[in-house]
Amino acid sequence: MKVITLCGSTKFKEQFEAANAYLTLQGNVVISVGFFEQSEGISITKEHEALFEIIHLQKIDMADEIFVIDVDGYIGSSTRKEIEYANNCGKKVSYFSESKLSIGGYIYENCRASKGE
Fold this sequence. Notes:
By secondary structure, this protein is an alpha/beta fold. The protein contains 4 helices and 7 strands. The strands form 2 sheets. A 4-stranded parallel β-sheet has the order 2-1-3-4, with helices on both faces. A 3-stranded antiparallel β-sheet has the order 5-6-7, covered by helices on one side. A hairpin with a 2-residue loop joins strand 6 and strand 7. Helix 3 runs parallel beside helix 4.
């Protein structure tokens, strides 16, 4: 059993949830973001943003590896910092765009959902 922290833009809520479900069903402990401010239109202060960055780095410290939600190859500046931090800590880094996830009859491949058989 591995501990995996999800990283990426909170605008990709659907993909975060799909990765969380898939990785959990594979027997992993999955650590995710607290909420999806970009997807849900929640305003946060600069102070909260700084706090969330610190918290997320601690989540990476707790993990064996990180799984980056990089829809269409998008990796923002905060996620780049998290990837760099994980690499510097010797953590494995995997990417949503390079994975094939199967959840609830849908297959996510190359960041796209399609109905599975």
